[in-house]
Design brief:
- The structure is a single chain.
- The chain has a single domain, classed as Rossmann fold, CATH 3.40.50.
- It is about 45% helix and about 15% strand.
- It has helices at about 15-25, 40-45, 75-90, 105-110, 125-145, and strands at about 5-10, 30-35, 55, 95-100, 115-120.
- Helix 1 (about 15-25) crosses helix 5 (about 125-145) and helix 2 (about 40-45) packs parallel to helix 3.
- The longest helix has 19 residues, at about 125-145.
- The model has no long low-confidence stretch (mean pLDDT about 80).
Length: about 140
């Protein structure tokens, strides 16, 4: 992997459990920009195209940006945001971090571009998520070189 620090955009509205992931990534040398709302994330991501990877929760409050969408009580908010991020930044790998186990949502996510991975928060303790992020970025660097 290159010597450049990995820049991560992390979008999740659950502040406490996510703080453990942020600490683990920061201690491992990753640069983490954390956003707890869809508006904050879209503004942050548009302002900078230098993220190496995006970590995105699926179930979030739709906020004003996705209020008119059929978000099903927030369960589909992340999918709307994912599609927007994929359109804006088609080469950035995206890892879905979620506890949502709805088979329809999972099938829809798996049908999207190859750089979308699904990681259950229950299956990935903080340091294992750091490893997944590093492997994902390394793999992407191999594709782009």
């Amino acid at each position: 992997m290159s010597e450049t620090k990995i820049r991560v955009l992390l979008v999740d509205d659950e502040v406490y459990p996510i703080s453990l992931y942020i600490k683990a990534m920061s201690r491992s040398g990753l640069i983490v920009d954390y956003c707890s709302t869809t508006e904050e994330a879209m503004d942050s991501h548009r302002a900078s195209q230098s993220y190496d990877v995006i970590l995105l929760d699926i179930m979030m409050d739709p906020g004003e940006r996705f209020e008119g969408e059929a978000h099903q009580g927030g369960i589909r908010t992340g999918i709307f945001m994912l599609k927007e991020l994929m359109r804006l930044h088609p080469t950035t790998p995206i890892i879905i971090i979620t506890n949502v186990s709805d088979p329809d949502i999972t099938a829809e996510l798996k049908g999207m571009k190859p750089s979308v991975l699904i990681a259950s928060k229950l299956d990935y303790p903080p340091l294992e998520l750091v490893d997944l992020v590093e492997r994902t970025v390394s793999k992407q660097e191999g594709v782009n070189s």
